[in-house]
Amino acid sequence: MTSMLQDFMPDRAETTLPYFTFGGARGFVAGRGAARPVARGPAETLEERVTTALSSAGADAAIGGALPFDRDADDYLWLTDRLSYEISPATDRAPASTVGVQAEPSARIYAEAVARALRIMEDETGDERLRKIVLARTLAVQAERSISLPGLLSRLTEDPAATAYQVALPHSPERQGRFLVGATPELLVEKSGSRVSSFPLAGSARRSRDPQADAAAASGLAASEKDRREHAMVVEYILDTLSPYCRELGAPEGTGLTSTRSMWHLGTRLEGVLKENDIPSVVLAGCLHPTPAVCGLPRERAAGLIRDLEPVDRDFYAGAVGWSTANGDGSWYVAIRCAEICGSRARLYAGAGIVPGSDPAAEAAETAAKFEALLRAFGLPSATGIAQ
Ligand SMILES: C=C(O[C@H]1C=CC=C(C(=O)O)[C@@H]1O)C(=O)O
């Protein structure tokens, strides 16, 4: 049986799917041409593996793909001999007609896990105490037939505030032709020459179709002390992690409101100037991820608890996806608002940051709101997963 992955393996003609693709309404960057996999490994060895791969590559080559949530798990990157800039793959094709949606875990069980995390935070003292954890849940979608990736990606480009993406994931005997497809509003790190930037998001409110209710949701978020605390931890962590690489780094505009079609967020644009221009953007992404926007603080403590409290493995959700050219320039995004697609099955992921003062039911509702962009792209009702 021919897998979807085989359809775009290196030796085949440039046919359907690129190795990785990122873009929006204005166009796409895609990895094309001859390609080979970068040796796989954990975050610790990323720089060494990337340097080796690029040492034999041409000036137009690029590395792109996905870093998993777990820093000890193997990443999945491709070295392609060129990037191509393409117009959006506009298509009316519906992704698929869905036949079943199952919340895993249910919103109720998720809220219980949030309550447990809050109790842990309350009970702990000292520097190593848990200060923030991001807990996620999933929706398992079964479609009638194979899900159309161009159809899904095309629908995801409709929100100009997000970067739509599709990256190949490693396949196993049971799961051939897997992809991560999503539309993320969160830039992990971008490098252009000596300039580096990041746009961390944390702190959320669901948007409303009613303009008055929408404005109230925005001003409620801007005034929320809990959300500002949740956000500040991410900004501080990114500043601390990037500062050894930078001779200038700051947040010139401070923290403000930003929005996608379905969510309001607190966001802070960080801008810096690198000490060394040739550090690959993928290496910077490897240092930063997973930030407290998707993991927590302290990072290792939160990652361990996430493994205990979440019943479904995150795999590449909440990792990083992006591309890096031969001279190191490129863009890496936080892999959120996404679904893992494999044939006729999809698994949607959404998480929410928990800090002292969080309310379990409100966090469950927030994850439901974060599913909305993907649900809309699938043509499913936005209420799916709220009460399940
Ligand atoms: C973890 C996710 O969102 C992060 C990004 C923005 C706002 C977030 C929040 O308010 O909790 C999360 O930190 C997700 O969408 O799965």
Automatic annotation (TrEMBL):
One of its GO terms (biological process) is salicylic acid biosynthetic process. Pfam families: Chorismate_bind. Gene3D superfamilies: Anthranilate synthase. Residues 109-370 form the Chorismate-utilising enzyme C-terminal domain. Residues 199-222 are annotated as: Disordered. It catalyses: chorismate = isochorismate. One of its GO terms (molecular function) is isochorismate synthase activity. Residues 213-222 have a biased composition (Low complexity). SUPFAM superfamilies: ADC synthase (SSF56322). It comes from the Bacteria. InterPro entries: ADC_synthase (IPR005801), Chorismate_C (IPR015890), IsoChor_synthase (IPR004561). It is an enzyme of class 5 (isomerase). Its EC number is 5.4.4.2. Transmembrane segments: none annotated. Keywords: Isomerase. PANTHER family: ISOCHORISMATE SYNTHASE ENTC (PTHR42839). Belongs to the isochorismate synthase family. This is isochorismate synthase.
